[in-house]
Amino acid sequence: MRRTKHESLQEIFAKLQRGDMSRRAFMRQASALGIGGAAAAFLSQAAGTAQVATPAASPVASPVGEGAALALAEIAMNPGSEQPDADPEAVVTINLGSEIDTGDPQVLAFLNEIEISSKVYTPLLALNEENLPAGAGAESATVSADGTVYTFTIREGMTYSDGVPVTAQNYAYAIKRALSPVVAGNYSNTLYAVTGGQAWREADPEGDAAELQVLEDVVSESIRALDDRTLQITLDFAAGYFPYVMAIWVTYPVREDLVEANGADWWRDIANYVGNGPFRVTSHTEGQEWTFERNETYFRGVPGIATLIFREIDSSETELLAYQQGEFDLMGPASSQLPQIEADPTLSGELQRSVGASTSWFAMNNTAAPFDQVEVRQAFAAALNREQFVNQISAGVGIPAGTLLYPGNPAYQEEYQQTFDEARAQELLATAGFPGGEGFPPQQLLYIADDASSQQRATFFAENLSQVLGVQIEPTPIDGAQLQSLRTNRDPSLIFWVGDWFEDYPHPQNWLSLVFGPGTTRAPLGWDDPTFNDLVTQADQLPIDEAIPLYQQADAYLAEQAPVAFFRHGENLVLIKPNLLGYVTYPTTIVDTVYQAEKIYKTAG
Fold first, then answer.
1. From CA 198, how far away is CA 417, in angstroms rounded?
2. 1 CB contacts (<8 Å, ≥6 apart)?
3. Which of 34, 168, 366, 417 has its CA 20 to 30 A from that of 23?
4. What are the CA-CA distances from residue 83 to residues 77, 89, 215, 306, 357 (Å)?
């Protein structure tokens, strides 16, 4: 006979009362049970109160052994403004591409959104130039002996750009907010190790108010400001990747007073977009431009850039022309522009290349026919002539990709890769009921309008798929901001489009679990595979050496099931004006603008 949820809660609550179960273990099990309305009533009655008592419903950390200092790398204090040849009035202009869909750090997901928000806010931790966690908003941290309780000491004297002190409560509010089902953030699942986090995030925001409150209370006890300078976060398991998560935008300390008073679009009014980062927003013209001035009180020193401007140009051709005319100080050219750049003596001297931690793919809506059939998706994956694309269209930039993880990632595997195989592709499509493409419905392949490289890619693969499979694929232009919005909102009208992933931090969890695992908002609609989810969930709870075999299995399984068809691992191309100096280079980023932007400066002239 199966026990009811009420009986299970009664049993574990009795253990808690007897001292046979720690409050931490109770919180984990209660969270796993969902803590529904009946549970809330039971806990309220057992606690002898008229409502759910916070101590009973939201346990605190149990003894877990003495905490040890978390090893944090150093980031040198060497701001660009202090360089002897720095232009004190330097104006730097960069292309943002398309307009952002959101500037809310606890919601955003795209590179242009990260670019904007990272100028305004400082994360709890940062990554140094060796991709190691370092102090940022927190100057130090400890972790319990069992790896489940992190305690951060907030940097003394840190303020927002308007002079308001930054406290542990600011960071606690932001991180908790990233797990709210109402906020519905796109990176929430990076925080699913937080006790109660997944249960609250995946709850129905329109559901029972009492149940939602109890779930929220669990998270409130898991993410706590102990005082103005002490933040404590409790996890369900020892997640070795967790310090990396503390270095991304989910921790950006948005101000509760500015957010709660201004609704979901609070960030659109720049008066509310106030942070503790190296810059402050001074103007924003939607669809055209963002302007920033340096934050003179930034804790790492006064930035070398006095005025930072982001323009919004979708076309890589227009961007390159603007760079040549001196309107941009740096740009990332499209791979198709490489021959033109290498033939130009000035541009070739300003070009830098490096390994890129990125992967591109064709995403297929797994809920929409015919892509709801695995054989169709596998057929498309087998039909892609990746090598020809890289050599002819991508000008040799990047390498053909048959899996999510790129060579160099610790869990990269070659057990199973998607590969170009015409005969197999045709056989799979026939098995799915479309021999020679007969009866296959025409598909639109969306690409960014006014961007020649995006159009070239769409045209190449449309012809490639037509030749191999006999299917009709129509390259279809769409505004870049509109496409980003459709992707952000996982619009069901999106059927076939290009997706990609750029590494946030160098751990397989950032790729497999975050992009395609439980709670993802980045995988195509319909992808929620129990086998894959089990593999990555197990791996996430293990030390990296023990986790790698599971991550490799997950990577191979993902390639085989083909919710997407991978086609290229990236390479970084950057054009940099000679008088732009001080920038810090990371293993897979030539010019870092997220963690050490204050070091960038320009010489006069």
1. 31
2. none
3. 168
4. 12, 13, 51, 14, 31
Q: Is there a single domain that holds both residue 441 and residue 510?
A: yes
What does the pLDDT look like over 456-479, one tens digit per residue?
999 999 999 999 999 999 999 999
Q: How far is CA 573 from the centre of its chain?
A: 21
Is the CA virtual torsion 109, 113, 118, 122 positive or negative? Answer: negative
pLDDT for residue 530 is more than 50: yes
Which residue is listed with tokens 């509310």?
A: 272
Q: Are residues 410 and 509 in the same domain?
A: yes
Q: Residue 166 — left, alpha, or beta (φ > 0 → left; ψ -120 to 50 → alpha)?
A: beta
Structure tokens at 321: 């022309």
Q: Are strands 279-285 and 289-294 parallel, antiparallel or unpaired?
A: antiparallel
Number of domains in the chain: 4
Residue 589 lies in a domain: yes
Strands 496-502 and 564-576: unpaired
Asked if 573 and 397 count as a contact pair (C-beta separation under 8 A), the reply is yes
Q: What percent of the chain has pLDDT over 90?
A: 84
Across the range 281-305, mean pLDDT stands at: 98
Question: Is 339 exposed, middle or buried, given 0-12, 13-18 or 19+ CB atoms closer than 10 A?
Answer: exposed
Instruction: Tell me the residue range of the domain where 143 lies.
Output: 69-79+101-266
Contact assessment for residue 406 and residue 445, using Cβ atoms and an 8 Å cutoff: no
pLDDT digits (tens, 9 = 90+) for 388-415: 999 999 999 999 999 999 998 999 999 9
pTM (predicted TM-score): 0.85
Q: Look at 54 and 494; give whichever has higher pLDDT.
A: 494
The fraction of the chain above a pLDDT of 70, given in percent, is 89
C-beta of residue 465 within 8 angstroms of C-beta of residue 413: no
88 domain-assigned? no
